UniProtKB/TrEMBL annotation, chain A:
Protein name according to UniProt: Cytochrome c-type protein
Binding site for heme 2: 86, 90, 188
Record flagged with keyword Iron: yes
Protein's job: Mediates electron flow from quinones to the NapAB complex.
Ligand binding (heme 1): 56, 59, 62, 108
Organism (species): Pseudoruegeria aquimaris
UniProt keyword list: Cell membrane, Electron transport, Heme, Iron, Membrane, Metal-binding, Transmembrane, Transmembrane helix, Transport
Cofactor(s) for this UniProt protein: heme
Binding residues annotated for heme 4, in chain numbering: 179, 182-183
Family, per entry: Belongs to the NapC/NirT/NrfH family.
From TrEMBL, chain B:
PANTHER family associated with the record: PERIPLASMIC NITRATE REDUCTASE, ELECTRON TRANSFER SUBUNIT
The protein, known as: Periplasmic nitrate reductase, electron transfer subunit
Any one GO biological process: anaerobic respiration
Annotated compartments: Periplasm
Gene Ontology CC, one term: periplasmic space
UniProt source species: Pseudoruegeria aquimaris
Residues at which heme c 1 binds: 68, 82, 85-86
Free-text description of this protein's post-translational modifications in UniProt: Binds 2 heme C groups per subunit.
Residues annotated to bind heme c 2: 103, 122, 125-126
Pfam family membership, one: NapB
Keyword Metal-binding: yes
Record key words, sorted: Electron transport, Heme, Iron, Metal-binding, Periplasm, Signal, Transport
Predominant subcellular localization, coarse grouping: periplasm
Family statement drawn from the similarity comment of this UniProt entry: Belongs to the NapB family.
Amino acid sequence: MFSRLWNWIKGLWRTIARPSIHYSLGFLCLSGFFMGIIFWGGFNTALELTNTEKFCTGCHEMRDNVFEELKSTIHYTNRSGVRATCPDCHVPHEWTPKIARKMQASKEVWGKIFGTINTREKFLEKRLELAQHEWARLEANDSLECRNCHSEEYMDFTRQSKRAAETHERFLVTGEKTCIDCHKGIAHQLPDLGQAGMMKPQPTEAQIVAYLDSLEELGAN
Amino acid sequence: MKRILLSVLGVAAVTVSISAASAQQYVATLRGEVDLAEETMPPPIPAQTNDDLRKARNYPEQPPLIPHKIEGYQIDKNANRCLTCHARSAVEDSQAPMISVTHFMNRDNQVLASVSPRRYFCTQCHVPQHEAKPLVENAFVDVDNVLEYLKENEGGSD
């Protein structure tokens, strides 16, 4: 069995390694070139097909939960009709990070097959974790997907409300914070974040436990 | 006989419809003079005031008005968009006024560690404003003017 397979591979290699008998070098080069165009074009078309809102909302997990929430926000409908679709914010536009994100998306295919969030209840339970992934991604790339449209350089602060202009000057221009730090939950609903505000650095669990222990000690004395 | 009955019924129906129509003319509703079965064209929604200037309260216990836009703010069991700026721990960053201590009180006036559930839904009391003409007249007079008037005209009251 294995020797037969080995022989077949060896035969194939001999054919590939040998110069062509019937076809000219020019023909082979040109056909390689055109095959390359067809292959690359096909690959890119397939990739772009998975980068559309229609594709994302093809599954009920997205259509009935996050897409439904998007519909009432300014990123879906507004006075000028310029809008963002799912991949505008959730898939990097540059080629290499885009391919990296597409490979990560295989986890989402896994989730789809095994029904990780196939009911509303399961989705709500997992929503905080899913949201945190997106927040971490946007924090790491300095809100790149926001900045693809909302450039800080061309933002006219005088056209913003006083409050917005001041806050942007304090936090955005100085680079102290990035868009997602304050603008969470603008396109989808927020999960349960607990009592603690979104803006403060949070103490670790160990610090909280130590604090509570010290209180108990005080009470004992 | 049948014919007479029909004509009487017809006259009655016409009278009822006429009186209904004339009554409709006199009832002033915000909806305007449009048949119930028809849909009115609602007036465009004016933009929310967004000047960030505090408005005076019309009486001491009036919940302060919101001087900025709150369109699309999420206020539910999971999150409270207002508190991301107005919470006790957030005002250092946001420089927004902190919600008053009454929001931490339960109904026995005991101050709790965090916002009392009965004071959690901001827009139950606090509302933004619109640049719109009032739909009905308002003869409200500020209590300071009332006090002043009473003092001058009746030598004060107790």
